[in-house]
Amino acid sequence: MDSTKKLIPLAALQHYAFCPRQCALIHNHQLWAENWHTAKGQLLHERVDRGEPETRKDIRFERSVSVHAPSLRLTGKLDLLEINSVENTLIPVEYKKGKSKVDDCDRIQVCAQAMCLEEMLGVEISDGAIWYWQTKRREKIELTEKLRKRTRGVIEAVGELFDNESLPKAVFMRACNNCSLLDLCEPKVSQADRSVGYIEAIFKDDYEKTTK
């Protein structure tokens, strides 16, 4: 890996899979805003991170585990890692505040976590899991080749986004209403409106300078 290139946080993959523009605003432009959804998510992760390691029925539970995969430019932390000493398996577990989604944005994050563990430890991981706070249910994630291919594609796309420091065009969708960056992103404002507003601002600035 080129040491001059920016590392990709695991969370950025979920952000990109959900919305490339959101990913760019957060990770390229360092913009963030809180709302009810982000506050609930933060509370959940704080509860998980505070938990102490423990062992129950031959399974070791390690919390807030740092991982990385230099070949993929990935870095981040696992909410929980389950280590089964009998079956000799590792299962990364991600905690989410909502419920299971139709798309793969959450599953991609878990798959990337497993890929980090595989590179670090030289092991093969077949499954991950997501625990959803809203439904109080755990979803098993099969790390199929299809999901791995999709994850590698998102990793590559985020890498290009970081390298180019680009900002994808805003596209409004229903999920935008729950995004904490809604007011900063302004997805309902068309590109033409943005251009007109930018030009008007320039002319206004020039006019004020000449009249002072």
Highlighted features:
212 residues, alpha/beta, seven-stranded mixed β-sheet, 7 helices, 44% helix
Question: Overview of this structure, please?
Answer:
The protein is built from 7 helices and 7 strands. With 212 residues, the protein is α/β, with parallel strands linked by helices. Helix 1 runs antiparallel to helix 4 and helix 4 packs across helix 5.
User: Could you tell me the radius of gyration in angstroms?
Assistant: 20 Å
Beta percentage is 15-25%
The parts where pLDDT drops under 50 for at least 5 residues are 195-204
Largest sheet geometry: 7 strands, mixed
> Separation of termini?
54 Å
Label the overall shape: globular
How many distinct beta strands?
A: 7
**Share of helix, binned:** 40-55%
Please provide the ordered H/E string of secondary-structure elements.
Answer: EHHHEEEEHEEHHH
Note the total helix count. 7
Quickly give the structural class. Answer: alpha/beta
Tell me, rounded to a whole number, the average pLDDT: 84
